[in-house]
Amino acid sequence: MNILFVCTGNTCRSPMAEVLLKDKAPHLFVQSAGIFASPNEEANQNAIKALEERGLKIDHSAQTVTKKLLNWADLVLTMTEGHKRLLIDQFPEYQNKYNTLIEFSTNNQNGDIIDPFGGDLFKYEQTLSEMEKYIEAIIKKIDT
Q1: Residue 135 and residue 24 in contact, taking contact as beta carbons nearer than 8 Å
Q2: Which entry of 7, 12, 23, 54 is annotated as an active-site residue?
Q3: Residue 111 main-chain phi, psi, to 5 deg
Q4: What is the pTM of this model?
Q5: What would the pLDDT profile of 7-42 be if each residue is shown by its tens digit?
Q6: Which is the catalytic residue, given 23, 54, 112, 115?
Q7: Catalytic residue at 85?
Q8: Among this protein's residues, is 13 annotated catalytic?
Q9: Is 78 helix (H, G, I), strand (E, B) or coil?
Q10: Residue 55 CA neighbour count, 13 Å, CB half
Q11: 42-87, pLDDT tens digit by residue?
């Protein structure tokens, strides 16, 4: 299964989610992208540090959401309802693939993963921990 995580700039939330899912479910194919990403930008330093504290490495270059990526993906998981709405507006033909991370992992519970951008390392660690519980639920859902 091909999973695409989407956030705003593809430097914080979606790359962290990508690394977590790749580590916990290496049988899945995972990428991340941003709706307003600056191509080839590195991951945020606090995102890198938060992952390193868990023994996880990241080698990341930001990419923008494209039709090619959306064609590749079986499932597109956004960090917020706003991201999902923007994708529906920009690429309506793929809307059957779109869910928020929380929506998909909890079977339709609403909620957003808060953007840690501009926050300290503790904020990134909190975001990573929050995403981890949803990612573990996704793995159980996909693998059953």
Answers
A1: yes
A2: 7
A3: 155, 155
A4: 0.97
A5: 999 999 999 999 999 999 999 999 999 999 999 999
A6: 115
A7: no
A8: yes
A9: strand
A10: 2
A11: 999 999 999 999 999 999 999 999 999 999 999 999 999 999 999 9
